[in-house]
Amino acid sequence: RQRETFAFAGEAAALDSPAPPPPKPAAPPAAPEPAPTGIVSTRLRPWLEIEFKPQRGVIDDERAAIAFELSVYNSGPVPARDVLLEASLFNAGAAQDQQIALFFDNPVAKGDRIAVIPPMQRITVNTAVFLARDQVRPFEVEGRTLFVPVIAFNALYGWGGGTGQTSASYVVGKKTGGEKLAPFRLDLGPRIFRNLDAREHELGLRK
Q: Rounded to two decimals, what is the model's pTM?
């Protein structure tokens, strides 16, 4: 419990000192200050932004893999806590959007978590995501067997007032010097693909 202290100003008057003059009338109370105007935000929370850079792809007889750098930036004014990052590799095709949406709506939510990302700070990880070779769905164009990978991410996090999720998806391919990306060729046998780039897909989530 906080101790309260009191102080008396001036010296104590002697018992035989003359009576003090009558007190002056009290001044009228000051008019209350006007209430502040404008909008005061009570929803201070973190916001995570995802930045993705593919580094290389590997296709062999057992799997397809994409190695990448992933940066997660907290653009909010409070720390993001217990951050969990998830990634999944998909085949580009007619079913991709349905599969990605299912991944966003049903995160695994298991694994090692990052304790905290402070406001206006980022963390960067280098890792890879895999797809078993028998799950790769190639397509044929002019006698070539091609594969277009799509990678989706979930960033799950919390703060004192709740939980949040940022999800994003990207199409990965080889740089061509133009806006379009080149797919991976599977008919050339096992190989490593470098000089990669990504284009953000329209499916994402931020809540």
A: 0.77
